[in-house]
């Protein structure tokens, strides 16, 4: 921690001496308070709710030159009170470099971006920055980017290594020991998008390679999972719509064969007045059939998207959970109410059921209601939300908590201040 602080201080001293119009320093301070009484999963009646405050603190440095651009983002995420008084270093070692990349402009159409970066496309269903999470999501990758008029093509490549088995300067093998949450050894993708007057279409093809291990915890090859599909949008006057169709095949972590995993969604919005916008939509995500073998599945997983944005803000699905389960059918209706230029209320009602039956034959999972209020002040903003889950029989079975042992109210309350100061 002391080394990192010294490094940051030295870096600030150097750049302060040479700053000019194309150099910028900004930051973010984002404390968030949460009351968790059923967030992420059902809570038992005899369990105490969780309550705490966590803060994200970032400082960002950007430099633009004629032929290149450099960006550095330092971050710390901490829970209030996690460190005792006069502790010499951060207990959880949460200080990190969130982004560190350089973008080289080869000509007016081509560029190459390399380093630690956020990779985000379209509605962030498959690849997104996960900005809701205090830690966010990043990738260590190389992007080759083409942009000409309305056409955009990105080619992305990543090769991850942790040098866990190192002797002197010789790496004994190329085994990648970081696992969990679909941590990949390799990634290759192509993203193509074109915009027309009222219509846009993008296509993504992505391959992720996952390190496998044998019974003796030794490297045992790579499982490759392919995800591909399209995102479509149409906007005309007060009406706009968006659709996703993605497929998965190959092998996921654990050498589990994926048989035609499918994600399909359609959302439509209509602005009935300048201050009121209504939405209606559904999403289908295929799941694992109860009678399928242990080493195969039909379940689709959204991988590296901003999953908090979808399927309810209480994060019961695809947020570190539900990875090889019964899938999901999500019907939802929502509304945005604008109170002037600075205040907004968002209301979303979602009904969930499994794409496949649970062992009991049940499919119904329940209904969630999300409310989010936002107000923008001159130089900062506040957000607050309330969510409640009305669980059905299937949810108690899915979350492995009998209804008679579960709390009668499953809810989540949060409030957040967002400050983004521009230092230079």
Supply database-style keywords:
424 residues, mainly beta, Porin, 18-stranded antiparallel barrel, two-stranded antiparallel ribbon, 5% helix, globular
Question: Could you explain the architecture of this structure?
Answer:
With 424 residues, this protein is mostly beta strands. It contains two helices and 21 strands. The protein has helices at 2-16, 393-398; strands at residues 23-37, 50-64, 68-79, 96-105, 110-117, 139-148, 151-159, 166-167, 170-171, 186-195, 199-213, 219-236, 239-252, 256-273, 276-285, 296-297, 328-339, 343-353, 364-376, 380-391, 410-419. A hairpin with a 5-residue loop joins strand 11 and strand 12.
Structural topology:
Layout: H1 2-16, E1 23-37, E2 50-64, E3 68-79, E4 96-105, E5 110-117, E6 139-148, E7 151-159, E8 166-167, E9 170-171, E10 186-195, E11 199-213, E12 219-236, E13 239-252, E14 256-273, E15 276-285, E16 296-297, E17 328-339, E18 343-353, E19 364-376, E20 380-391, H2 393-398, E21 410-419
Parallel strand pairs: 14-16
Antiparallel strand pairs: 1-2, 1-21, 2-3, 3-4, 4-5, 5-6, 6-7, 7-10, 8-9, 10-11, 11-12, 12-13, 13-14, 14-15, 15-17, 17-18, 18-19, 19-20, 20-21
């Amino acid at each position: 921690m002391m080394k990192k602080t010294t490094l940051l201080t030295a870096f600030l001293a150097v750049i302060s001496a040479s700053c000019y119009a194309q150099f910028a320093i900004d930051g973010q301070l984002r404390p968030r308070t949460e009351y968790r009484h059923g967030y992420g999963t059902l809570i038992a009646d005899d369990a105490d709710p969780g309550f705490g405050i966590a803060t994200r603190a970032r400082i960002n440095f950007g430099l633009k030159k004629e032929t290149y651009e450099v960006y550095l983002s330092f971050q710390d995420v901490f829970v209030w009170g996690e460190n005792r008084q006069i502790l010499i270093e951060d207990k959880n070692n949460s200080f990190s470099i969130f982004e560190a990349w350089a973008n080289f402009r080869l000509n007016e159409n081509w560029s190459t971006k390399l380093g630690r970066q956020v990779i985000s496309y379209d509605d962030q269903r498959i690849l997104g920055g996960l900005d809701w999470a205090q830690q966010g999501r990043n990738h260590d990758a190389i992007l080759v980017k083409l942009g000409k008029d309305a056409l955009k093509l990105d080619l992305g490549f990543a090769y991850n290594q942790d040098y866990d088995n190192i002797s002197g300067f010789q790496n004994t093998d190329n085994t990648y020991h970081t696992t969990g949450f679909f941590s990949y050894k390799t990634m290759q993708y192509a993203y193509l998008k074109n915009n027309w007057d009222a219509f846009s279409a993008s296509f993504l093809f992505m391959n992720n390679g996952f390190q496998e291990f044998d019974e003796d915890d030794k490297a045992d090859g790579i499982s490759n999972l392919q995800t591909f599909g399209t995102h479509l949008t149409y906007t005309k006057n007060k009406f706009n719509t968006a659709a996703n169709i993605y497929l998965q095949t190959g092998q996921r972590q654990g050498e589990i064969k994926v048989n035609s995993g499918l994600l399909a969604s359609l959302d439509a919005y209509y602005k009935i007045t300048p201050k009121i916008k209504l939405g209606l939509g559904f999403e289908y995500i295929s799941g694992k059939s109860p009678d399928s073998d242990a080493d195969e599945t039909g379940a689709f997983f959204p991988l590296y998207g901003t999953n908090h944005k979808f399927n309810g803000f209480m994060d019961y699905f695809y947020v570190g959970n539900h990875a090889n389960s019964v899938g999901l059918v999500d019907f939802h209706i929502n509304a945005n109410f604008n109170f002037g230029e600075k205040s907004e209320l968002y209301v979303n009602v979602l009904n969930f059921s499994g794409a496949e039956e649970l062992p009991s034959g049940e499919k119904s999972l329940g209904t969630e209601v999300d409310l989010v209020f936002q107000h923008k002040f001159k130089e900062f903003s506040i957000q607050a939300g309330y969510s409640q889950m009305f669980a059905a029989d299937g949810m108690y079975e899915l979350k492995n908590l009998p209804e008679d042992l579960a709390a009668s109210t499953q809810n989540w309350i949060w409030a957040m201040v967002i400050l983004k100061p521009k230092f230079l």
